Amino acid sequence: MKYESIGNITLPKIGFGTWKIGGGMTANHFLDPHSLTALRSALELGYTHFDTAEGYAAGHTEELLGNAIRGSGIKRETLFITSKVKPERLHYDDVLKSCEGSLRRLGLDYLDLYLIHWPRAGMDLPDTFRALNKLVKDGKVKHLGVSNFDLKLLKQSLGLAESAILTDQVPYSVFDRTYTKNDVLDYCKENGVLFTAYSPVGQGHFPVNKTLKSIAEKHGATVHQIALAWLVSQPYVITIPMSLDPGHQKENLDAAGLDLTPDEIEQINNLR
């Protein structure tokens, strides 16, 4: 595994996303056995960074993740757990209540990282950060971050947070480079902010590309693994793929061990 360090924080380059675990926007309890199997498998394989949100399956994803963690016997301090507050909850009291709800569902005393999930038109960002700063002071949250924030909002957040903004979590993949074109990635690198790539292989809708296929064949890897290896070859970039299949989970984790050549990286950089 490759790691990325920011200040005194070291995170694996590849973590585990939990969107679609336990349902979509609403809970689907029929999926519980399959969802728990997937989470338990990820823990057994050695994933340590788990990313979730109160909006995933209306909070049920957090419940399932907490269940899997408690049953794993793995020490809490060896895991890094991220959750997120919904955009409609971006008010002082609501942020505090949302965090308490996430902690309760997860069965945890603190979150390693707490993110604003999405910006919202008309949101009171200073009021929101007043609550987030309190959560850090109270020990409920260790680190703060944002998600889906453009450059203007990210800069505002850095000015409002009383502790460092650890990350901006955004969609980023070989075929989605929106947040490199809008200068967010460069700003993160220049200011010591992690750039967390979600949907790194397009949630299953990933085009088969001749260049990627050729590189994959040279490494005895899958195209998805090459796409992940390209992401984690970049400084300040980490990623959080999700798979329900234990075999694919292992492939995703193993992608961090692939070393692409400078020429291969350049070939992928030039893909559009």
Provide structural commentary.
Helix content is 42%, strand content 17%. The chain has 272 residues and is an alpha/beta fold. It has one domain: NADP-dependent oxidoreductase domain (TIM Barrel, Alpha-Beta Barrel). The protein is globular.
List the helices and strands and how they pair.
Layout: E1 3-6, E2 9-12, E3 16-17, H1 32-45, E4 49-51, H2 60-72, E5 80-85, H3 92-106, E6 111-116, H4 125-137, E7 141-147, H5 151-160, E8 165-171, H6 178-181, H7 184-191, E9 194-198, H8 210-219, H9 223-232, E10 237-239, H10 246-254, H11 262-269
Parallel strand pairs: 3-4, 4-5, 5-6, 6-7, 7-8, 8-9, 9-10
Antiparallel strand pairs: 1-2
By CATH reckoning, the class would read Alpha Beta
Report Rg: 18 Å
What's the helical proportion of residues?
40-55%
* Structural class based on helices, strands and sheet pairing: alpha/beta
What would the CATH topology be? TIM Barrel
> What is the overall number of helices?
11
Short descriptors:
eight-stranded parallel beta sheet; alpha/beta; 272 residues
In short:
By secondary structure, this protein is α/β, with parallel strands linked by helices. The protein has eleven helices and ten strands. The chain has helices at 32-45, 60-72, 92-106, 125-137, 151-160, 178-181, 184-191, 210-219, 223-232, 246-254, 262-269; strands spanning 3-6, 9-12, 16-17, 49-51, 80-85, 111-116, 141-147, 165-171, 194-198, 237-239.
